[in-house]
Fold:
Amino acid sequence: MSDTPDTIVLIHGFWVTPRSWEHWVTHYQDKGFRVLTPTYPGLEGEVEAVNADPSPLETLTAPQVIAHLTDVVAALPKPPIIMGHSAGGAFTQVLLDRGYGASAVVLNSAPTEGVKVTPFSQLRSTFPVLRNPANRHRAVGFTFEQWNYAFTNTFDEQTARALYERYAIPAAGGILWDSVLANLLPGPQDIAVNYHNDQRAPLLFISGSEDHIMPPSVQRANAVHYKGDTITEVELFDGYAHLLPAQQGWQRIADVALDWALRHAR
Structure:
C-alpha cells in the first residue's frame, strides 16, 4: 500500500457547516481523493435544519468537537491530509499535536491557546458574541451586515448575500467565550497544543490578506509560537477575505494547499 495520503479531511469553522467546503470536496474528489467533511456533534443536518433548531450549539464544547474529530481521523487506515478553516484550523492544530495527520493546512485559522494578538477587526467581528456574557450559553448568529464584515468583506453584495443564505448558521457562544478566557486561566485549556512537539506533522498556515475575523497578524503570531524542528510555514494570499474556500479563485488556493500537503506528508 502506498504511503501517499489518499484521504483529505476538511474541518469547517464557526458560523458555517461542512457545506462551506462544497467546491473543495468536488475538486479533490475529481483528483482521486476520498474527502471527508465531519461536522460538530449535534449539527449533522443541513444549514436549513440547523437554523431551524440551533439548540445543540448552546451546550456544545470544544472537547466534544475534538473527541468527535479524533474518532473520525483515528478510524482511517492511514494518516490523512487534514485541512481546517477558521475554528477548524484550531481544531486541526490540536489533532496534529495529538499525533494525527500526515500533514495539515489551515486557512484563516483561529488561534490556539497562548496567541494573544487581537486586532481591532477581530474584536469587531466577534463583538456580537462577546458583548454579552450570557451568550456563553447561547447559539449566536450574525446579521447579514455582521457576516459581511467578518466573512465576505471583499465580495460583491449579491454574492455575499447568496453565501449568507446558503452557509450561515449560529455559532456556539460557549466555545468562543472559553477561547477568550483560556489565556487568562492557569494551565492548558481546551485549545492548547505543545508548541515544542517535534513529532507533529508539517503544518501550513494560509492567510487571506483582507480577512477581518482572523487577520494575517493572528496567523503569523500563531505560527511563530511553534518552536520545534517540525515544518511550520505561512503563505499569504492577497485580496482574500475570511470565507476563502468560497471566494473567486479558490481553485488556486486549493491546489496550493494540496500540493504543499502532499510534498510534506509523512
Q: What stands out?
A: Strands lie at 7-11, 34-36, 81-85, 103-107, 139-140, 171-172, 203-208, 232-237. The CA atoms of residues 94 and 193 lie 6 Å apart.
